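note to self: dont lose this again. the chain is below, predicted strucutre after it. 357 aa total, dont forget to put it in the shared folder this time
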Amino acid sequence: MTFDPKTLRQWWPKPSVMRPIVILGAGSIVGDAHLPAYRKAGFPVAGLFDPNLQKAQALASQWDIRAFATQSEALAVEGAIFDLATPPGAHAAVLSALPRGSFALIQKPMGGDLDEATEILNVCRERGIEAAVNFQLRFAPMMLALYDAVEKGHLGDVVDFDALLALATPWGLWPFLKGLPRIEIAMHSIHYFDFIRGLLGNPLGVHAKTLGHPNHDVAQTRTAAILDYGDRVRCVLSVNHDHDFGRKFQACEFRISGTKGAAYIKLGVNLDYPRGEPDELWIRPADGRDWVEVKLEGAWFPDAFINRMANLQRFASGEDQTLVGSVEDAWQTMALVEAAYQSSAMPATPVAALPKG
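---
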């Protein structure tokens, strides 16, 4: 098959009928990603609610939208899609208050741990809520194009996946993280775990070590992980958020190798965060050509949020038959995260001492 980068999918089709969006929460992610994405896409936002009314009003005024005075007012919007930009520990309670049969988008992670994820899943099942979790990396233009290239056979069978992050992440931008027992995998690399599941399916197991750094008190900022896909596929992640020695040798990249071709992805938003750099996607296709750059039409932030919401809107209208990243599927990502933390807590196998001569 001849490779034409212009034919690769980068956007999810828009819904023919758009439901109003009610945002629950007024944190930084709402102003940085949700609202910019929805305005760019033309999705109607009915308003937002936050228990801190002053905070909600300040953000709403910036975007010329309504700030609901009470949660009851917000939940009364007819035909709404509820966008839960709430802390992980609050998801289950908010979902329990939604009208039965609602459609919802839940901010990642799906609870603080697997027990909370199970509670969220059960609430959605019991109340008939069709919900997706906002693991939106799958929906970034570069990732939709990569998935498309793989599905069309331009790489052959994927046999190697390498994630390399060596960068400086400004954890102080998120004060709510202070004191949390689980940070790096639960709040960051969870995106990569979920993306890999979308590409390769569920692994057989995981070997992981996640740890902090002596220069600060964030629980974990460095992770090494191997996802076990048997004897054919090698999948490795090396994540270091403490490579704070200048931009020159920093990296945030994936290398995906197949039996016939390969792909390289640069995740630019994480470099010099929050300003970021452009994303990049390069493919060396199975047709024998050298590396070809795929000209990207958008970026992870905010465009992945557009595509994520488009799928949910289309699922709600019946135009999409599959809700990508549904709570049923996202629970599997949370199970993988839980297994990684359990692996990290296990003692390492000691190296045998040399026999005495």
